[in-house]
Q: What sequence folds into this?
């Protein structure tokens, strides 16, 4: 099972500062443990929402709002994709994660949809194009 | 530049465990994914099960505390994401606008941190841990 591990934003991450050396070192060690255990598939950090935008949809209408966005607690500051045997295993790993910021912070754990989660109705059509898509993305070299 | 398009579906914060998108929505999204692929901008994508099947870990000081989903106070939650490689923020927004959304959803467009974005001292620290670098060979596997 794959899980998305969402590191939620805090006032510090939204201020756009760089993490302090102590946290970086602890996070580096944690990442090495994840890699050694075969858990980590990918991970990225996001720039603060002030550099982002939102597109809201209503029928055929699309409205663009420039960042920053007020609800800091709901925003994502970074994420990993992990391969785990269960939700409990993902939770156990997250509990070992160094606190990502020098303040109260939160990490959300969400299971990723896999092809086999979809019912028979869409599976056949989906499977072919989805497998083709994933094979091509996996083959593409990082820029 | 890499951008993440974060899909925030309206009402997904209270979706039941096992809730699935309709076949119609999936078919429309597959077409859109195919157009991203053909344009050579798509790097990766995933859909997420409802938060009622997930958990949150909060850190207060050093102590982790686990909360099972659903998260009743959440006004918005992530339903999935696309990672894209484009030339500008405007191009990323254009792609977001083309998404075949059926309801009143929101797509948030956020720039991904690249190694070169960090100051020299932070780069030096990150350099000690190859797994933390965005272009580490293992970081794209799925």
A:
């Amino acid at each position: 099972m794959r899980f998305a591990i969402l590191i939620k934003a805090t006032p510090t991450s939204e201020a756009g500062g760089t993490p302090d050396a102590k946290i970086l070192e602890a996070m580096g060690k944690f990442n090495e443990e994840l890699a050694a255990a075969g858990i980590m598939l990918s991970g990225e950090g996001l720039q603060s929402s002030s550099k982002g935008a939102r597109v809201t949809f209503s029928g055929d209408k699309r409205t663009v709002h420039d960042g920053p966005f007020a609800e800091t607690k709901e925003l994502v500051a970074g994420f990993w994709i992990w391969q785990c045997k269960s939700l409990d295993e993902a939770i156990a790993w997250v509990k070992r994660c160094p606190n990502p910021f020098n303040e109260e912070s939160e990490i959300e754990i969400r299971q990723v949809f896999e092809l086999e989660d979809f019912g028979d109705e869409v599976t056949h059509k989906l499977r072919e194009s989805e497998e083709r898509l994933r094979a091509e993305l996996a083959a593409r070299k990082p820029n | 530049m890499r951008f993440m398009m974060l899909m925030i579906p309206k009402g997904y914060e209270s979706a039941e465990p096992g809730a699935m998108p309709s076949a119609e929505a999936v078919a429309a999204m597959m077409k859109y994914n195919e157009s991203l692929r053909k344009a050579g901008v798509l790097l990766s994508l995933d859909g997420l099960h409802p938060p009622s099947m997930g958990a949150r870990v909060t850190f207060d000081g050093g102590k982790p505390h686990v909360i099972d989903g659903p998260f009743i106070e959440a006004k918005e939650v992530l339903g999935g994401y696309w990672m894209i490689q484009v030339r500008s923020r405007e191009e990323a927004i254009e792609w977001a606008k083309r998404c075949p959304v059926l309801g009143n959803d929101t797509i948030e467009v956020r720039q991904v941190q690249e190694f070169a974005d960090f100051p020299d001292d932070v780069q030096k620290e990150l350099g000690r841990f190859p797994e933390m670098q965005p272009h580490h060979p293992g970081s794209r596997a799925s």
